[in-house]
Amino acid sequence: MDTTIERTRASPRRRLLTVTANEPLGAYHLLRVADPDGPRPDPGQFAMLAAAERWGGGEDERPYLARAFSLARVQDGEAHYLLEDVGPGTRRLCELRPGEGLLVLGPLGRGFSPPRENRRALLVGGGVGIAPLAILQDTLTAAAVASTILLGFRDGAHAAGAALLSGAILATDDGSVGHAGRVTDLLAAELERDGHAVVYACGPAPMLEAVRALCAARETPAQLALEAGMACGFGACYGCVVPARSGGYLRVCVDGPVLDAATLDYVDTHAGAPA
Questions:
Q1: Would you say 103 and 49 are in contact if contact means Cβ atoms under 8 Å apart?
Q2: What is the distance of C-alpha 73 from the center of its chain?
């Protein structure tokens, strides 16, 4: 990744924001919060989220760690996050209603870089990993850069989340919507048709590894937005490291979450957005 690219930096303090809407989107929730004065995120950056109240579990309600979520969109003074109920922390976030408080630390990390060498943009998403591709599509559209959107889901209920983006070509594991199979089948066909592209991908680790391998075989540049368990978001805890091709480790929260695929020998199994 080009580390000389400037990125939006956040205050080290959490901000208390107010939920404005919690909209069902198939199997997901689109959480909208008022953030008119917050720094505008770069596509691919994330924030650490925690409910302002009832943020804990067990008999003593021990506080949960904040959860990392990509910014899905910034619009009309609001920040949008795409959530899926996969555990107690995300369940509490999915329960939030208008008027309730959300503690937000972000935007954090490094985002996507624009395509170069007149390459077209291929956006590839899987499951809840489609979130950062929405703000990326908005940014590319504003810059008059055309993009092709390929999204994969496990079934029709999850595929309803594709409404977050426009003009997407869909694949589902069960064949209920779009192509019956994996989104990487669609990507392979697109690269075969025209490999002069930059691939932007976010999704489960197996999907990201398949994207990395496809692009490496065709020498097509790719940028992968990884997900990993985090405790801080600032690189202090080293809980989100992934092995680098050159040796050593990269921290997803500060070296990423978007990494140049060429910096990785493979995508670690814990480094993909949950499907």
A1: yes
A2: 11
How far apart are alpha carbons 131 and 200 in whole angstroms? Answer: 12
Contact between 234 and 253 (Cβ < 8 Å) = yes
In the chain, the N- to C-terminal Cα span, in Å, equals 25
Distance, in Å, from the CA atom of 4 to the CA atom of 32, rounded to the nearest integer, reads 32
Q: Which two tokens stand for residue 25?
A: 């989107």
Residue 132 to residue 125: CA distance in whole angstroms: 9
Angle, nearest 10°, between helix axes 183-193 and 205-218?
10
Contacts of 170 (CB under 8 A, 6+ apart): 151, 152, 153, 159, 162, 177, 178, 179
Cα(256)–Cα(275) distance, integer angstroms = 19
The confidence score (pLDDT) of residue 207 equals 96
Q: CA 163 to CA 252: how far, in whole Å?
A: 28
- What pLDDT digit, counting tens, does each position of 202-257 carry? 999 999 999 999 999 999 999 999 987 777 787 788 778 888 999 888 999 899 99
Question: For residue 212, is it left (φ>0), alpha (ψ between -120 and 50) or beta?
Answer: alpha
Determine the Cα–Cα distance for residues 199 and 142; give it in Å rounded to an integer.
19
Q: Are residues 147 and 103 in the same domain?
A: no
| Residue 256 forms part of a structural domain | yes
The pairing of beta strand 197-202 with beta strand 120-126: parallel
Within-domain flag for 91: yes
Q: Which amino acid does the sequence have at 48?
A: M
Residue 1 lies in a domain: no
